[in-house]
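Follow-up to my earlier ticket, as requested here are the two runs.
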Amino acid sequence: MLRLLPSLSLLLLPLLSVPTLAADDPAVTRGYEIVTEADNRDKGWINTESRMRMELRNAHGDVSERQLRTKTLEVDGDGDKGLTIFDQPLDVKGTAFLTFSHALEPDDQWIYLPALKRVKRISSRNKSGPFMGSEFAYEDMASFEVEKYDYRYLRDEILDGIDCFVVESYPRDKNSGYTRLVTWFDKAEYRAQKIDYFDRKNAALKTLRFSEFKHYLDQYWRAHQMQMINHQTGKSTLLTFDEIRFQTGLSDRDFNKNSLKRAK
């Protein structure tokens, strides 16, 4: 899963020109190699289920907490499927969010709102809007797919004592809320340690930090804390995973938009 925040009127903002990324540019080739290696190291997990807490903090430091569960299904040849279900507090209990991520096409996303008792499709033009009032956007909730971006290696850098590759990514989707992302991958395990997001005006928008990594099935690393900080509003969202389970028997039948109202 797990990529925005304020709803931006993309049609009214001038598009910034993306730097020319020649296929034979060594920085482009190296950037693609790094991201592809990171992606290859995280294949074959089949499916997962998790429980987590979401802490929403406003600019004044006030905090509200939500409890939720996620289910994810790895899909060969396309993006992954994900289902998020809110359990607490009562005002969001029963809300369910379904994503069918895609590599080359816009992601399909639906949300069930108990108060309205209906399933709403999330338009691709609204993917930069806030997910359930958090600093994560609908776009951020889709799975990462290599084909969604163009890449350029920037430099090596030490981040909090960790030797990292730094790679810049340019979304190919015209409806993305970002002009670019800058990601720090640790050289030891190719895990994303930090991502900086830049809005459609190329201004610094958000930073996502990953921490509390745990190793599963002798292969897969998962961060048990993810904090998204919005530099433009002073708000932040902290996701803390209490439990992650792998290969629990999920299948396509568990990811059906027609059953969102009954999601458990």
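Run two:
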Amino acid sequence: MTDAYPLSGNEKEADARQVVERSREAAERGGRSGSGASASSGSQEARAGSTPTSRGPRRGLALLGAILPAAVLLAWVLATEVVDVPSYNLPSPSDVWLAGVQLAQAGLLGQYVAISVQRVLIGFAIGAGIGIVLGAVVGLSRVGEALLAPSIAAVRAVPSLAWVPLLILYLGIGEDSKITLIAIGAAFPVFTTVAGSLRHVDPQLVEAGRAYGLGPVSLFTTVQLPAVIPSLVSGLRLALAQAWLFLVAAELIASSMGLGFLLTDSQYNGRVDRMFLAIILLALLGTLTDFVLNAAQRVLLRRWR
């Protein structure tokens, strides 16, 4: 494929986008690309799912998801009110609520939640960025894979608590060590999903971009990254969940605030009600942030299909 006249960089990129779109459409029509057919069927399902007739079943499924938490809450109430399980083993829901009210009135609960959310979001952003870069290097380059993949696999196998002494030694007991530990936990899910997905990008799309003179960076941002958006968002959701898991280990590093601190401090003081409160808040915050990423995933999938 040759051009009669030399094209500027912007024209090449625009033409490459057009060729990529035509290649995708041809793959969907002819069934030559499995990923193209999957994207086409996924788009049809998305359009079908947006019809009014499907909204009722979706709401029914959402209500179905509330059955198990309601059953657990009911069993919890029965165990503490009817069976009379000792409060030092299982505090009642009212005791946990009262513990939260007391912390809120003291001005501590909001601070604990805010500092934990801040640490998770900053560490998640840093770790996700590092994971995308490393995943791109390993997924797009055989040399990068041979050089980095074994070392990253070894580092990934190290438990979270094993990093705490080293981080205290090198970074101290401030915020840097806590955020670094969370970033370590968030980087690996993103790295794994990005690296694995980039290896399976449709070669026809890549060749079309190269034929129009796209460089490595333009090829990555224009062709390859959009092709792995679903896997990337799934990796980000896993990374965010991992960040919340690493938060408790991070707040073991000489913390005086945060939900992880509340959890461990309550353990030392025998406040089982506050331990339950910390666990419930961590579960609620993790669910909320995952819901936000899930909504972003739907928007991105509609944008790139």
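The only thing I checked on run two: Residues 1-7, 30-52 have pLDDT under 50 and may be disordered. Let me know what else you need.
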